[in-house]
Structure of UDP-glucose 4-epimerase:
Amino acid sequence: MKILITGGAGYIGSHVVKQLLELSSCEVTVLDNLSTGNKATINTLEKIRDFNFLQLDLKEFDKINQFLTEEKFDAIIHFAAYSIVSESMQNPLKYYLNNTVNTTNLIECAIKSGVKKFIFSSTAAVYGDVQENVNIKETFATNPINPYGMSKLMSEKILQDASKNFPDFKYVIFRYFNVSGADMYFDKDNLCPRIGENHNPETHLIPLVVKTALGKRDLLNIYGDDFKTPDGSCIRDYIHVEDLANAHIEAINYLEENKSDIFNLGYSKGYSVKQIVNAVKDVIKIDFKTTIVDRRAGDTAFLVADNSKVVSTMKWKPKFDNLELICKSAYEWEKTI
Ligand SMILES: NC(=O)c1ccc[n+]([C@@H]2O[C@H](COP(=O)([O-])OP(=O)(O)OC[C@H]3O[C@@H](n4cnc5c(N)ncnc54)[C@H](O)[C@@H]3O)[C@@H](O)[C@H]2O)c1
């Protein structure tokens, strides 16, 4: 099977590439413009097994069209996008152009070149501000409150409409909750991640916490402690990137026999910001300073998946549903960068 991974030099994409290289004999091609991903990740992955790497921007429509026509991929896993919520509020067109327009073009080229399976990275941000503290099902209303979430929801709709028109072209849409942790690679008995999260700027909680623990930042900001949650800080569903990555491989198998669908990817378990801070302190035995600052615009109190659909429908078995492992792998990775 020939698989194209867009955004494979980035955080999540690189973990899927790693699993494909380690687990199966499929032919892997990564397409990435290295705008937020990096070449060092590609070099690390090349040590596992050879694969094709093409540095190209998805906005190069003619080149994308020609490339897909020549290569005739069986499946595309599409990660390439921008994903900083605050940046999307300041520069919405940057998000609509890269996330929605480029995705639309990729879908068209995929259909024209005979691709049968398309796996799309969407986000819990499509649900918007869920008022009740309840786990979110895929059937909940979608109501994004920022251009990032809207750019992904629009891509979901375009993908669904395109597939209705071309029934041989099937999709799985994954709505990720908070992806975290790093490569679970062991050297003898020591956890030594070879790849992990390295965004610049970093906006995700767990890498920010471990950076603070390592003295790369002076203190950790906790945005609001007056939410309607037991300790007042926001609650999120943190899923290990290895489990999330593995779901993409299952999705390709799933589409062999099954129809297109949308799935949440999370553990159905929420931890507050303060619980994450304490978990990291417990795991790595380092104390560090935190400070309570004002809430950020658009932060909701509680964002936790109901993952019963993916668990009952796909052969996906999470292996790292363990906050200690998530924090430890993020910390071991952070020490290397
Ligand atoms: N990290 C999370 O917690 C999270 C949560 C929900 C959804 N997502 C989605 O998952 C996907 C991957 O996220 P990530 O955290 O790995 O991000 P990332 O920034 O680490 O990776 C994105 C990759 O896409 C590449 N890219 C971006 N625009 C491109 C373009 N026009 N042409 C070619 N390559 C391009 C970047 O260089 C980068 O390597 C994104 O679609 C994101 O919206 C991530």
